[in-house]
Amino acid sequence: MSLTIPDLMSKMPGAFFAGRRCGTDAVIQFKFTGEEVGNWYATIKDGKCVVAQGDTPSPKMTLRAGASGRLRQDLHRRTGWHAGIYAG
Fold first, then answer.
1. CA 57: distance to chain centroid?
2. Does 40 have pLDDT greater than 70?
3. Could you tell me the pTM of the whole model?
4. Engineering a disulfide at 18: which of 28, 41, 47, 81 sits with its beta carbon 3.0 to 4.6 angstroms away?
């Protein structure tokens, strides 16, 4: 089953593991081009991760990438999970 960008982004809050990131306050902007154009952002604050579609005025980090099946696999495997922000 192939994940779409909306599928992947909707799973992000459920995979967030606050225990390792107590005190983290960040907003991450995702800008996708290619097969699935769209902008999303994740707000990490008070031990929670909230994801929304659209743009945020002041992200601490912006990830720009062409959305393809390969990118979705890489994001699922690497973004956050390997950085220790997400469980899994």
1. 17
2. yes
3. 0.73
4. 47
| Alpha carbon distance 88, 14 (integer Å) | 11
**Total domain count for the chain?**
1
Q: Residue 32: which CATH number? A: 3.30.1050.10
CB neighbours (10 Å) of residue 85?
21
Other Cβ atoms closer than 10 A to 32: 22
**Crossing angle for the helix pair 69-78 and 5-15, nearest 10 degrees?**
10
Percent of the chain past pLDDT 90, that is, above it, reads 27
Cβ(41)–Cβ(55) below 8 Å: yes
87 pLDDT band, cuts 50/70/90, is: very low
Note whether residue 73 is domain-resident: yes
| Domain of 18, in residue numbers | 5-78
Q: Is 1 exposed, middle or buried (0-12, 13-18, 19+ CB in 10 A)?
A: exposed
Domain assignment present for residue 84? The answer is no
